[in-house]
Amino acid sequence: SGKRVRLRDCFLASLFFLCSNVYALSMYGPVFSWTRDGTHFDIDHLSNVNMKQRSGTLVVDIRNDKAEHYEGTYQCTARNDHGTALSHNIVVRQSRSPLWSKEKIKPIVVQEGVPLVLPCRPPAGLPPPIIFWMDNNFQRLPQSRRVSQSLNGDLYFSNVLRADSRNDYICYARFPHTQTIQQKQPITVKVLNQEPTDERRPTFLTPSGQSSSKVVLRGQVLEMECIAEGLPTPEISWTKVSGELPAERTSYLHYQKTLRIVNVSEADAGEYRCIARNELGSVHQTIHVAVKAAPYWISGSPKNLILAPGENGALTCRASGTPKPAISWAMNGVPIENSPNDLSRRVDDDTIIFTNVQTGSSAVYQCNVSNEYGYLLSNAFVNVLSEPPRVLTPAHHVYQVIKNHQALLDCSSFGSPIPEITWFKDSRASTLDGEPYKIHDNGTLEIHGSQTRHNGKYTCVAKNMLGISENHVYLEVKEPTRILKQPEYKVVQRGRDAVFECKVKHDPTLIPTMTWLKDDDELPDDERLVVDSDSLTITDVTDSDAGVYTCIMNTTLDQDSASAELTVVEATPTPPVVYELPDAPTDLELTEQKKRSVQLTWTPGDEHNSPIEKFIIQYEDSLHHKGHWHNLTQVSGMKTTAHLKLSPFTHYTFRVLALNGVGLSRPSLPSRMYKTDPAAPDVNPADVHGFGTEHDNLVISWKPLTANQSNGPGLYYRVMWRQKGVESDWTAVPVRNASKFVVSGTPTFAPYELKVQALNDHGAGPEPDVAHGYSGEDLPLAAPDNVQVQVISSTQAAVHWDAVPAKLLRGHLKGYKVYYWKERGLHKHNHHHEEKQILTFGGNHTHGKLPGLHPFSLYSCHVRVFNGKGEGPPSPIQPFETDEGVPGAPSSLVITDSNVDSLTLEWSPPHDRNGHITGYTLKYHPVNNTHALGPLEELALPSNETSVVLVNLKYSTRYKFYLNAKTKIGAGPPISQEAVTIMDEAPPVSEDFGNVSSTNADDGVLISWEYTGPEKDIYVEYKMKDSKQHWHKELVNGSDNFVVKGLKAGVSYWVRLVASGQSDLACFTLSPAVASRQVDIATQGWFIGLMCAIALLILILLIICFIQRNKGGKYPGDERERGCHTDPEFQPMKEEDCTFGEYSDNEDHKPLKGSRTPSNGTVKREDSDDSLVDYGEGGDGQFNEDGSFIGQYSGKSEAPSPVNAMNSLNSFV
């Protein structure tokens, strides 16, 4: 019904490309012709029909003619010297909107509670009309679960009510193409209430019977409806008998009465069941759905072929459909069975195979795939061409790139056979291949991370069997732009000056441009702001100057930026002034009312000593968001009017707020409502993305329009897509009430072009931009090849592999994962198996290092590639062995036998041998009283020994030992230990005792010492060596010497000095001394009697102590004992022989010179309880015959003991 008909798109995009090449390779352009209904359409004799030059587009002027004269099926043909191409059929039909037939509709009288159907039956139009019911006031009739419109337009009542009585049930038919609406005669319904209607169980009004069937085409929309009557009103529910409903593609319309599934696939076939249920029972209907499919491409339409003479090739026309489509071939528009015979061509169902093609075999082949539901037609040009290479990239082009960035040098070429591309630099010494160079399939040279050394001349060479062509380009690598001194945060008083510095370094060959922004916007046009080459100066700062200032240094290749904030404060204190919020504006008025704008004026309120800085205009949309106020715009505080831009289909109410230095005023009273008319959308959805959730789908998502952006009722979206690189039309579907759409049956990880357009009842939005996405990923098909392991050291190995080809990745390459694990150690005693470890290398890495390996071990590894879907198969397992390393420290080192001049050391081999142990190295040196180190001795030991006896050592000397193991690689870390030979002398443990000595006197042995401690009472205690007797205790009364009398000649004694007080405990030992030669008093009678008395007294005391302990009484010595034993480093003496026990330094690496001998610990108590209980056992030592000292131990306890003692052990002979 329009004025002009244009027949566009007379050929596919692929044929358009073909025709362009035809025109380029022949002297004349293609010749176009048209057929209508299978016969030639002669336009030369039709004055109102003309064809556009060089395009074949027909333009038919029907202003003075009837459109139905041009109805029919059109097809375009394009011919030139190389072949003939055909377009799809183009069907032209006149849009029709016939009138409703005149009829007189009698009023319908029904009893309340019964069902009712009001038929619509609109006239058949082209395309079919859209049906809706309204009243005389053009208001839509309300619908509900009880009253709803069916898919054919009839109005169904499950049961009628008295309120349904009315005389204006009107069915309207809107014909969208002609933009006309036809009206049916009004229907009058009168509902009577003569007698109450019984409640009844549901029955179906439509469809009839217990089952029905429906056929739907793949990719279209399936709509099934079930409308039931009953009292009370039944509810409808849906299930799929043979599976689950596709939730993402399923929606329910008309109050659950209509089930709608979009983008139907073969999986949607089967039985569906709708169930109607009310309080009295239920009924169900089974709908059998069969899914048919018009032909569709499986792997895309046939592609053009360019073959050189003698080459082989194939055209594939692979499609599917239900029922299975038939495939036919044509050459230059003629069925191939009627075309001239060509020995180089063989047709095999959906494939044409070319073998040893010759010049002159060029032609355009048509593939037609059809079944009863549709057809596909595709043209493919087979061009047999002999063409030497030509480089199409402009010569001597200069590429500039920033250092460390990627550089891409183009080398576009043409030739047949397809030329091979190689690149050279400067002198052509060798081709550019491998890091950092990469040559892409289109000939582009990529340089990853460009450096200054990559500057220079590059030569691209294109070569095939017919010739060679080359081109020279140049690369310049520039230094990056960097801000050396950034602007700093400033706090400036009002009226002062502020200076922001911004010093920049850039490549001297690039021209820089400095730009300053304030709050991410241009600087105000104010002469107070002065911009210099490296600074910004703001003179006479005001409050409005506060904000964030950003300097941006731009070059033609890169940029850098930095920001700083300016805070403005009061210059000097001012007299107190009362500042308050401004009063609300008043007298809002709307003027200059237009479709998309209106002018708002108001009267400001009182400022209250603080000038109004700005007015904020807010609006309420009572149509979409009633009760919510939104900021629309703001104007300067000096203005009282604002020109407001408005959106269509909105009910606006405005209010104004004033802002001063204190804050916002209360809002003004609302203005009167202003309604804008609906219109087509102004914008399309943003954030259009394409991605896959399964390997064979494409999810198209977008950000839906807001209610304000919809511009009118009936908002929906037209979602369009086509596979990128495949010559095909856009596929479009309408989508309502959703923000994504799933395309099923796509090839795995294929690029797509996407568009989403917004539409509503008033038209379509602007032409949408094209977005890009990929269909779903699948797991990679292949593992990396050529996995090799190079052992770098005993703990590190490098793994190399070949990248997996892109066509086998089936997704975005995320990286590679190297799985490696230790099978076992190569030492015969090591069979440890570790869990697998994984190292991930992101991106297109083809090598990596495995750290932290165990030396001298057998490892295995394999490599997997992974994409966004997951990991591919593993490469073959690659075993490798690490080299030997230095061993770990020996597992243990103990002193098993200690003598005066020898020590026995025993050890265990290292737990981590890391190779074959070739021997041990033992180092040791003595440590004296002042912690000085003696000469270091070194001893090499064979690998099969685990003990050694060291002889000729100094008596009463502490030694520190270092033992380490060796392999052929070297020595491992040592284990250390300390031990003391049997003592002739005990150096003092505490500094409070010094110069302790023993000398023979006439009547005994004289013990002398120096004591500088705080204690007042000093005791000398002694007993026979190896005796179980109690200690004899003598109080010294502050003296510094004491004569021990009554000792037996030839008997060894233990002697100790004890300092007893309230705050400290210190112990040390004395070595044995020889008792003075005197008369053997043991033979004297008085001595024997005295000894018996003493023994009896001691026995009585022991009995008393034993009774006390059994009664649970606390023995005071327990506290003292615990006080003496609090230091965990104290090493006890063996009481049976008064020698020091083994000492082990737990901190093997602490320096010897600062070390101190352990002083206290737990003493083993066997039979002697007296002194150990009284004061706490220190350490035992012994005297030699010369009375010299052997060893000395001391320590301090922090436990609150009532008695602390300093002990000295001596034995006499």
From TrEMBL:
Residues 1-87, 98-188, 202-290, 295-383, 389-476, 480-567 form the Ig-like domain. GO terms for cellular component: axon; plasma membrane. Residues 584-679, 684-778, 783-885, 889-985, 987-1073 form the Fibronectin type-III domain. GO terms for biological process: axon guidance; brain development. Residues 1204-1213 have a biased composition (Polar residues). The chain crosses the membrane at residues 1086-1107. It comes from the Eukaryota. GO terms for molecular function: cell-cell adhesion mediator activity. It is found in: Cell membrane. PROSITE patterns: FN3, IG_LIKE, IG_MHC. Residues 1141-1213 are annotated as: Disordered. Keywords: Cell adhesion, Cell membrane, Developmental protein, Differentiation, Disulfide bond, Glycoprotein, Immunoglobulin domain, Membrane, Neurogenesis, Phosphoprotein, Repeat, Signal, Transmembrane, Transmembrane helix. The keyword Signal applies. It is a single-pass type I membrane protein. Belongs to the immunoglobulin superfamily. L1/neurofascin/NgCAM family. PANTHER family: NEURONAL CELL ADHESION MOLECULE, PROTEIN SIDEKICK. This is Neuronal cell adhesion molecule. It comes from Neogobius melanostomus.
